[in-house]
Hints:
There is one protein chain. This protein is of the alpha+beta class and 314 residues long. Helix content is 20%, strand content 34%. It is built from six helices and 21 strands. Strand 3 (13-19) and strand 4 form a beta hairpin. The longest helix is centred in the C-terminal third of the chain and has 17 residues, at 202-218. The model has no long low-confidence stretch (mean pLDDT 98). Zinc ion binds next to loops.
Amino acid sequence: MFxxxxxxxxxxxKKQCMTGPDGYPMPATVxxxxxxxxxVLVTAQIHSGEYPGTPAAVNTAKRIDPLQVHGNIIIVHCxxxxxxxxxxxxxxxxxxxxxxxxxxxxxxxxxxxxxxFFINEIFPHVDFVLDLHSGGMTESLTPCLFWPxxxxxxxxxxxxxxxxxxxxxxxxxxxxxxxxxANVLGIPGLLLERGGSGLCRKEWVEAYERDIALCLNAxxxxxxxxxxxxxxxxxxxxxxxxxxxxxxxxxxxREGQHVxxxxxxxxxxxxxxxxxxxxxxxxxxxxxxxxxxLRAKKGSSLAAYSLDxxxxxx
Length: 314
Ligand SMILES: [Zn+2]
């Protein structure tokens, strides 16, 4: 019997359930493998407007035969359920909490209680965390992933190399679901990014299903035969460009584009068309994601790009 978060699942079976902190049910599937092995947590939509991970999680939960599984798989199909229902871009609507920045949470807010639920009820049973993201509603991105740069880097990077994602970015996040699990608690994991702009294209969902399958294969939980993947770049430093004032943003680059040092990344104007500021690349690199919508708000993300000087081809 595999027991997690008050759910008991007989070996060789799977169970659909609602899980989460009191009063905040999240749809999940718990798969208890017939054989011994590692336990992986797969989460989708901690950011509520990032959709492709959810159908991939649902399809994966349906497809997997627990009799073939070595270990256990916990799939939370949608974490930020209230944000999804309310149509928020990313955050938990009850308190504005960002589940990629609010760990270890607290008892007084919904986002804080979600964080504490994962810390207390889920993480103690888990050997690996796979967290599925996408570009936000006004964000375009090229497939990339973030691997923990403080703890458990080696095991996380080993699994990252087995996935079909070209850009592997080192992350020092300690306050998100995956970042806290890895960089604070020492549970290896990866934060994956595919698709964006509030869309949910079939090819992104299918690619995510394959990422999950490749991850399960790399962890020895469920073998998969099609393991051919793309060449990769390991990125140890990226630039996260933010807006210096409110304005209207006109990007001059696209996701996946290589930029040279000093190249214009975009500019802002006021509502009368007068220029405010032009943003330049501080060095050469690849645009990982950028704000494709019109709005620039002081302190908010405009673009993220890797730095060639800190990038290694593998
Ligand atoms: Zn996200």
